[in-house]
Amino acid sequence: xxxxxxxxxxxxxxxxxxxxxxxxxxxxxxxxxxxxxxxxxxxxxxxxxxxxxxxxxxxxxxxxxxxxxxxxxxxxxxxxxxxxxxxxxxxxxxxxxxxxxxxxxxxxxxxxxxxxxxxxxxxxxxxxxxxxxxxxxxxxxxxxxxxxxxxxxxxxxxxxxxxxxxxxxxxxxxxxxxxxxxxxxxxxxxxxxxxxxxxxxxxxxxxxxxxxxxxxxxxxxxxxxxxxxxxxxxxxxxxxxxxxxxxxxxxxxxxxxxxxxxxxxxxxxxxxxxxxxxxxxxxxxxxxxxxxxxxxxxxxxxxxxxxxxxxxxxxxxxxxxxxxxxxxxxxxxxxxxxxxxxxxxxxxxxxxxxxxxxxxxxxxxxxxxxxxxxxxxxxxxxxxxxxxxxxxxxxxxxxxxxxxxxxxxxxxxxxxxxxxxxxxxxxxxxxxxxxxxxxxxxxxxxxxxxxxxxxxxxxxxxxxxxxxxxxxxxxxxxxxxxxxxxxxxxxxxxxxxxxxxxxxxxxxxxxxxxxxxxx
Amino acid sequence: xxxxxxxxxxxxxxxxxxxxxxxxxxxxxxxxxxxxxxxxxxxxxxxxxxxxxxxxxxxxxxxxxxxxxxxxxxxxxxxxxxxxxxxxxxxxxxxxxxxxxxxxxxxxxxxxxxxxxxxxxxxxxxxxxxxxxxxxxxxxxxxxxxxxxxxxxxxxxxxxxxxxxxxxxxxxxxxxxxxxxxxxxxxxxxxxxxxxxxxxxxxxxxxxxxxxxxxxxxxxxxxxxxxxxxxxxxxxxxxxxxxxxxxxxxxxxxxxxxxxxxxx
Lengths: 519, 264
Known about the structure:
The structure holds 2 protein chains of 2 kinds.
Chain A: H1 2-43, H2 45-60, H3 63-85, H4 94-118, H5 122-130, H6 135-165, H7 178-186, H8 190-219, H9 223-241, H10 243-246, E1 257-262, H11 265-280, E2 285-291, H12 293-302, E3 307-311, H13 312-318, H14 328-343, E4 346-354, E5 357-362, H15 363-369, H16 374-377, E6 384-387, H17 395-404, E7 410-413, H18 418-425, E8 430-434, H19 439-442, E9 445-447, E10 459-464, H20 472-478, H21 487-498, H22 506-514
Parallel strand pairs in A: 1-2, 6-7, 6-8
Antiparallel strand pairs in A: 3-10, 4-10, 5-8, 5-9
Helix pairs in contact in A: 1-2, 1-4, 1-6, 1-8, 1-9, 2-4, 3-4, 4-6, 5-6, 6-8, 7-8, 8-9, 11-22, 21-22
Chain B: H1 2-7, E1 10-20, E2 27-37, E3 41-45, H2 52-59, E4 67-72, E5 75-76, H3 82-87, E6 89-92, H4 104-108, H5 110-114, H6 119-132, H7 137-140, H8 150-162, E7 168-172, H9 180-197, E8 200-205, H10 208-214, E9 217-222, E10 225-230, H11 232-237, H12 242-263
Parallel strand pairs in B: 3-8, 3-9, 6-7, 7-8
Antiparallel strand pairs in B: 1-2, 1-4, 4-5, 9-10
Helix pairs in contact in B: 6-8, 8-9
């Protein structure tokens, strides 16, 4: 526990700093776009009604989905700008997060601008005209000052929303306080989860209070309050920009190596392990964790990250769109060739273990039902099967379901770490799991055989981005890891992070592993 | 005096003015003709919907006429820039129309500032006007409209209308929301200031007593038409029709009832 708290504190300046910069940028952009649009919308119903409807629809898109949608959008745009103008934009991280959050900030501000301007006393507007103001003077000297309190209320609502939703920018590669929450949820480190929630709430409240102070300063015409609020806001932003906060991993600045990690414990450990090897070789290194599976691959191809570990079966199905099973080594060879040819990505080879999709049951339950393999499962269509968020839409599941006739089974999706809870408590009868997970043995689960070899092999492959194709120093730092991590070693390291008692952080588990590996 | 004024060229001349509001189908003002000589205090009177406020608002183009002409000092207002026109005509709105986020001094100074007057000019003018409308500068200059009584607000509105030294002042039912005592005091001050500054004033009201007491001439309107125009005496002596007779009768009847009650 103490370790977790200490590690969480150490990460705070970076996470909080980036969180502030992102949410404040999105809010400023949101205000800059929404206020003029709101004025135009209040002036013309024909423009205003469809605009408000469109922005309301955007608001109904779940935050995570909206953020995720901007990644492929920017990726396509990036390809376009590369073709047209010879430069590419970064599709991962700050930019997509900024755009999505700006859209989110727009609705409350826009709506309040329109409501405030619509609600002004017509007699006052008539008076403004009557004393000889032009429409522009009326807007700036009378209408906006009178609408200001309501507009500010909209900005305050947007602030609280945006600071909260900024935590969701973690999976698209933008560091935020969400890193605590996503990582914490994956490795069941509740200290991390709580830390992220409390820090985000505290930031939202602080910004809201400062805006409230500015509002009362406007209402009471108190210069003191306005100055205090402005100083407070500047202090928050300045704090986020100090070197301690920004650390080495400034968004956008591309100095140093970025190691990617998907959203589970093994990936965190391996990215730390690769990172420590590269640091020892003299590189400055940062991590981008909690990336979606395909997001990580695209990010590597685009140069947003420099290296990460992926699994052969995953790439075979999702990237090459192959369903045939050429055998373990053939798959590795064909993958290495295809990735190099189509994406410029270098495979250094297999780390030495497999993290395969498997299906597992409680031993007593399997015995009672007489189930030993996936073939036996077909006779029990009433059983409930639990999977992570990806499995049922992946080609692996389609292959298994087709091979063994499992389409009728009731499916449930769980956050990966809750799968074990689900099968142990009986919420699910069968669960998907990963072969390198230390908890399979720990909980005494039995792995169902796959006699038809419907599930592909999942060798852990170390992938390196196109920029390092001829970087021999870089390759040399990572090469010793190839072929040296046994399944048992990985399971033990994973268990250190995943177990309930005496839990370790991924950094500590990576260090433990590092000592047991060749240099 | 009155006789000499009438010989002067009219300061405001309204010719064949007409206005219909889109969608209403009825004519708000039709074929309206009126000449107002310089220095006259003219009251437009009539029941609700008779077109008197519409007529007033067409003078400074808050409402655009459909047809006809309005000449001020010989110049057709439809040929002038509406914004500059409004800056040179004072306007006192129903219920004052003060800007709630501006202090008394800022409200009064608004038109001079739009005309580019500097701080010193505006400050001196505000001082002068507060004095003229009998509000103590130290107590009122920095207050917000919400902190004033109805009568005080109307005095500030008058000061604001006068700030840029316009030759013409328009007042739209300026005393409607005031209690009788305040009403009488503010009305007397308005008339006194009109005389002192030599203004030409158009005021709209539906209160005949007020019209009789304040006006040099009264223009009676009904259904968008001008029914009769004349001095209070002329209207009383020879009302044009039953409608005007009734309008004049009301204050008379009240005066008689009042006399009887007080003498009894």
